[in-house]
Amino acid sequence: MKPDEGQTNIPETSSVITRYLRNMDQREEKPNQQHSSPVYVHNPHLNALKDDILYHFSLGTGSHNLPAMFGDVKFVCVGGSPWRMKSFIEFIAAELAIEEAKSEYPNICAGTDRYAMYKVGPVLSVSHGMGIPSIAIMLHELIKLLHHAHCTDVTIIRIGTSGGIGLEPGTVVVTKQSVDATFLPKFEQVILGKTVVRSTDLDQSLAQELLQCSKELNQFETVIGNTMCTLDFYEGQARLDGAFCSYTEADKQEYLNKAKEAGVCNIEMESSVFAAMCKLSGLQAAVVCVTLLDRLKGDQLSSSHELLQNYQLRPQMLVGSYIKKQMKAKAEHS
Ligand code: URA
Q1: Cα 218 to ligand 1 centre (Å)
Q2: Which bin fits 268, alpha (ψ -120 to 50), beta or left (φ > 0)?
Q3: Are 297 and 256 in contact (CB under 8 A)?
Q4: What's 201's DSSP letter?
Q5: What is the pLDDT of residues 79-118, one digit of tens each?
Q6: Average model confidence (pLDDT) for the chain?
Q7: Cβ(39)–Cβ(151) under 8 Å?
Q8: Which atom from ligand 1 is nearest to the alpha carbon of 292?
């Protein structure tokens, strides 16, 4: 059911969403009156392709009408686990009162088990697996998808989990800068055998808006700080509990304390390439991760399943309230 069909008692949020969606429809009818920001690809070879097959999504320009399917997307949330991204779309649908909260949301990428994708209204939720290579492949195809669908003014947010440094477990970190394992704000990619260095700048105003949303929510601690992106969960993050380890507890503490001095609040495995690729494509991007443990105090994720699940809801709640606030503001000002 569409948001404004057959509803006699439309809740306040729902009428806001209805107005938002109507305004968005009108925007598309008058494109010249808007200063919209497209999603860029930088690849002349794409013009020569008859069909662009987005293989890992099981979608393509020849087989699917991407503008019809995705042209209204304004917010994209990405996260590691397919299960979490499904639960996010259910959460956001209920939060925005777009559709009945209990209706089923089909996986748009059902033709593949690589990634999962869900959509409700202007919100797309996509899983990216673990680590830089996995999220990079997903982002190449996602950026092309948004480009082929002629999406404009898209905000993309990674919601995830991380290890904190000197923070109470459950604290949410909004990334100021993504840094590498030497604490530098760069992402290195080897292309044709040569190392290409890319910037990992994220949108500072979006980060501040997210922090403000968290203050308004007032349900958990949120900080803004640097996020270290590593190539590995164990040795790459100075853990002592992997299959291999050649350093001492003191070495680990020294390294993590140096990270802390460099402004690192948390450690995860995807933010650097996420920031670099979103910047190249002109997407307004942010990273919001909850800390599952304090790495200065331990390495193993020994908290109960329920507590860890509860922590994982926090980035969803924060991003959900941000999206709701943005949609409400747009509906009121258009
Ligand atoms: N994800 C990580 O990359 N590291 C952690 O310690 C926890 C979650």
Answers
A1: 25
A2: beta
A3: no
A4: B
A5: 999 999 999 999 999 998 876 656 789 999 999 999 999 9
A6: 91
A7: yes
A8: 7
Ligand 1 center to 163 CA (angstroms): 4
Residues 295, 171 contacting (CB under 8 angstroms): no
pLDDT band with cut points at 50, 70 and 90 for residue 35:
confident
Probe target for ligand 1 pocket from 292, 297, 303, 309, with the most ligand atoms within 8 Å of CB = 292
Residue whose CA is at the smallest distance from ligand 1 atom 1: 162
Tokens of 274: 């996420």
What's the pTM?
A: 0.90
Largest CA distance in the chain: 66
Probe residue for ligand 1, chosen from 267, 273, 290 as the CB with the greatest number of ligand atoms within 8 Å = 267
> Which residue type is seen at 150?
H
Rounded to an integer, what is the distance from CA 325 to the centroid of its chain? 17
Question: What pLDDT was estimated at residue 34?
Answer: 58
